[in-house]
């Protein structure tokens, strides 16, 4: 599902840059750790304010470093004409939302390796600047820390657990050698799971050895890696299962169409309460002009439902997406995920022929795998 817990910062190279709210928590924690822990230990007898200011500057520059790492991936993707939908900076670092899978192993490898290379280059750059900064103690401290943290960032991301960059590098290598993306994905997933377990094991071992905080962190990272690998493998299984099947096989031919001047209140009285419909096609003179879901109606206060027409809240224009009966079912599902919707109208020769919902896909999957279909 599309998540809205982000703040839009601006665009770089046409790519929207966003921060997840969780990042602010990390910002505060990091500033605090640096101001009361790292800096006072490494550089003694400064005024307290200086530690805090330096801590905050460091956290911001770390943010810039993570952003540059992500831009490294994006620049390579854009070079190969692969669209990057957004870059989101969140609690674990950053995510570049690259729209499609890379067309071949070499390109996937180059996109994946670009981020860690940027981090290592930044590590080297700050390492050099350290010598220039030598006479100014706070500046020296800052350069030292940034050199260190960028190298750690690059190295951490090279851990071969999917979906970390190292996992992608590993998958690209197996893909390149075997020529088989499916086998590469499942092998990368298994390695990711193994590494996740290894982290959890080491973390728990450290907790028992008395290093509680570090152990907890390592175990937490392991848990995250294991979860990511598992979801990657689930996705692969789903893709295998859906391969070769079309929207027309799974869609329901039944859909409810309503007129443009229907009010939300009419809709509730006539359709939603009565039949439990999930979405409505808005048609004018036999032409589809929009799609309405109960979710959209909740954006209007209940006392204004009788004065609000469906055309005022429906999805319309370019935001209204269609699929065709011949569209690959996997592609349709990917499109739903990308746009954060639960249904897509199915059009053929300019006419609507049905609806495809997530439920349709799930019950189709049940039929495919021989499981009983509910109702
Ligand atoms: Zn990366």
What features would you describe in this structure?
The protein has 375 residues and is α+β, with helices and mostly antiparallel strands. The chain folds into 3 domains: 1-158, no CATH class; 173-242; 247-368, CBS-domain. It contains 13 helices and 10 strands. It has helices spanning 22-42, 48-79, 105-133, 137-157, 165-178, 181-208, 212-242, 247-250, 264-275, 294-297, 310-313, 329-339, 358-368, and strands at residues 6-12, 15-20, 84-90, 93-98, 256-258, 280-284, 287-292, 315-316, 343-348, 351-357. The strands form 3 sheets. Strands 1-2-3-4 form a 4-stranded mixed beta sheet. A 4-stranded mixed beta sheet has the order 5-6-7-8. A two-stranded antiparallel sheet has the order 9-10. Helix 3 runs antiparallel to helix 5 and helix 6 (181-208) packs antiparallel against helix 7. The longest helix has 32 residues, at 48-79. The mean pLDDT is 83. The structure holds zinc ion. Zinc ion (ZN) binds next to helix 2.
Please give a handful of descriptors for the protein shown.
3 domains, four-stranded mixed β-sheet, globular, single chain, 375 residues, binds zinc ion, 13 helices
């Amino acid at each position: 599902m599309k998540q809205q817990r982000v703040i839009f910062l601006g665009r770089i190279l046409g790519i929207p840059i966003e921060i997840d709210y969780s990042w602010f928590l990390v910002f505060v924690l990091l500033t605090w750790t640096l101001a009361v822990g790292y800096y006072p230990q490494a550089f003694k007898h400064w005024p307290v304010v200086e530690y805090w200011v330096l801590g905050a500057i460091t956290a911001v520059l770390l943010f810039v470093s993570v952003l540059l790492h992500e831009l490294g991936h994006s620049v390579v993707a854009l070079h190969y004409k692969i669209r990057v939908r957004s870059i989101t900076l969140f609690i674990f670092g950053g995510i570049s939302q690259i729209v499609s899978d890379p067309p071949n192993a070499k390109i996937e490898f180059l996109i994946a390796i670009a981020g860690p290379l940027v981090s290592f280059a930044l590590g080297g750059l700050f390492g050099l600047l350290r010598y220039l900064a030598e006479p100014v103690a706070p500046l020296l401290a800052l350069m030292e820390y940034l050199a260190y943290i960028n190298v750690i960032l690059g190295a951490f991301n090279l851990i071969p657990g999917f979906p970390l960059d190292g996992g992608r590098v590993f998958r690209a290598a197996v893909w390149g050698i075997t020529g088989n993306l499916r086998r590469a994905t499942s092998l990368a997933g298994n390695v990711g799971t193994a590494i996740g377990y290894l982290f959890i094991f080491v973390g728990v071992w450290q907790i028992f050895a008395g290093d509680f905080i570090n152990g907890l962190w390592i175990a937490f990272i392991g848990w995250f890696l294991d979860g990511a690998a598992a979801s990657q493998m689930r996705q692969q299984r789903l893709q295998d299962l859906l391969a070769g099947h079309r929207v027309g096989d799974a869609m329901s031919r039944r859909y409810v169409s309503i007129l443009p001047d229907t009010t939300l209140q009419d809709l509730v009285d006539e359709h939603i309460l009565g039949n439990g419909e999930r979405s409505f096609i808005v048609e004018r003179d036999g032409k589809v002009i929009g799609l309405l879901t109960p979710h959209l109606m909740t954006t209007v206060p209940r006392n204004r439902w009788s004065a609000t027409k469906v055309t005022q809240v429906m999805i319309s224009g370019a935001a209204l997406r269609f699929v065709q009966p011949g569209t690959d079912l996997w592609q349709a599902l990917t499109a739903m995920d990308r746009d954060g919707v639960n249904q897509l109208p199915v059009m053929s020769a300019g006419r609507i022929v049905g609806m495809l919902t997530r439920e349709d896909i799930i019950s189709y999957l049940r039929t495919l795998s021989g499981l009983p279909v509910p109702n």
